[in-house]
Amino acid sequence: MSTIEDIKGYIAVKTLDVGTNKLEGGGFIAEMGGQIPIVFGNGEVPMIWINTLYNGSWVNLVSMNKSSQPNIKVEVTPNSREELIKALNEILAHAKMINDDYCKALRINLKSIGINLLSDENSLEAAGTKMQQNTFTGVKFMFGFFNSPKT
Known about the structure:
mainly beta
């Protein structure tokens, strides 16, 4: 439930800024065995989807800023165009629309849901690989992992 075809309502942002890395022209941060753990889409506030692997299957936790789990809270601040998603008071994602075409992921930490994907305003790290100040243009993914993680 987290392949590109499954992301209902997704509209790409022209620029996604993640830890000083820029993804230009649409695309996603990471792909894991054909699945996408986190998606940032265009909207008045960032549209966010979060998926994780649970008991061998991918499940959706957040879809278009709506949580499917009682322990995951989505806080939207329309005036500042920000969104904050927390699981048991730990930040999973914090993002802001800088303008209509530019989304900045201020923080990502998916470790608490079993995915080694982290970022802050200075760097992006996936599975131990850290990136800073890169620009990706015309690619679907910044990171690609061909086998899904084992639980």
